[in-house]
Amino acid sequence: MSDKIIKGVSVTKEYGGVAVVKDIDFWVKKNQFLTILGPSGCGKTTTLRMIAGFERPSEGHIYFEGRDITDLPPYMRPINTVFQKYALFPHLNIYENIAFGLRIQKMSEKDIEIKVSKMLELVNLKGFEKRKINSLSGGQQQRIAIARALVNEPKLLLLDEPLGALDLKLRKEMQIELKNMQRELGITFVYVTHDQEEALTMSDKIIVMNQGEIQQIGSPTDIYNEPENAFVANFIGESNIFDGLMHKDYDVSFSDYRFECVDAGFGENSPVDVVIRPEDVKLSATGDGQLSGVVESVVFKGVHYEMMIQEQDRSWMVHSTDMFPEGSEVGIQIDPDDIHIMCKEA
């Protein structure tokens, strides 16, 4: 039996003849935390809504545990959704909000009490049963929305930017809590966000989308360390991207210097894009390194300094815990492992 709980095959969604999701293939493994990541308007929420059943694909099929559910309405799918606007019932207290789906199933009062109590404990809100929704903070309301979705024991939970309304500190706390919940319950999560840090923090696998198309699928480390194109390199964190020439395997030129690298399979004398992350650039005051430049600006970012280095007609962004003053000359050292090669985009 396949370990894929959800699978999309050649899925397209059009509105008024305009495709907002374009012939994509994707899958989600059981007990996996998958994040669909991309900028606003890239098709990520539309993809989530097609999985949930709120939208029907214009073309293609969606399968749940091998069964075609493309035409099934949302209420017939073993899937629950948590939205950015939590859609809690203001006239019901916390207990009744969580119990709502169980009452629709006509579950016994004793079983409802057991399940609601378990959920309140899971989201650290035990003792809040009689509180009104409007008395809660944004983070507490978000926990109640998650508890209401989880109490029905769905096989798959969809989350559409549920942390977007929270402040930065609470958002970071909830990222960890959500991941812990997912691991404890063993439920498959599909999470939509435009926040790269959220995706890297929580995910087992990330789908990066842009303009309705999938740009890359991989683990957080693969997506960050081995971006497949310039869009992914720029969207996930900061990047220095330069024109390069791949002379042969493990041998590339850029910035008028010939570097050793660890990439192969690009052919001989092939134009490529070269990606170097700012934290992988090593600076020295002695001028040691393959290149040299002048510090143009320095900004303190809390855990590191962000410096812009002018090297001939090229600008380098560098993140370092060592600060080099503006105007100082520095050496630029790039190790082979820190050079990432991508095919040149047409």
From TrEMBL:
Its EC number is 7.6.2.11. Keywords: ATP-binding, Cell membrane, Membrane, Nucleotide-binding, Translocase, Transport. Transmembrane segments: none annotated. Residues 6-236 form the ABC transporter domain. The keyword Nucleus does not apply. It catalyses: ATP + H2O + polyamine-[polyamine-binding protein]Side 1 = ADP + phosphate + polyamineSide 2 + [polyamine-binding protein]Side 1. One of its GO terms (molecular function) is ATP binding. Part of the ABC transporter complex PotABCD involved in spermidine/putrescine import. Responsible for energy coupling to the transport system. Belongs to the ABC transporter superfamily. Spermidine/putrescine importer (TC 3.A.1.11.1) family. NCBIfam families: MMSYN1_0197, potA. The complex is composed of two ATP-binding proteins (PotA), two transmembrane proteins (PotB and PotC) and a solute-binding protein (PotD). This is Spermidine/putrescine import ATP-binding protein PotA.
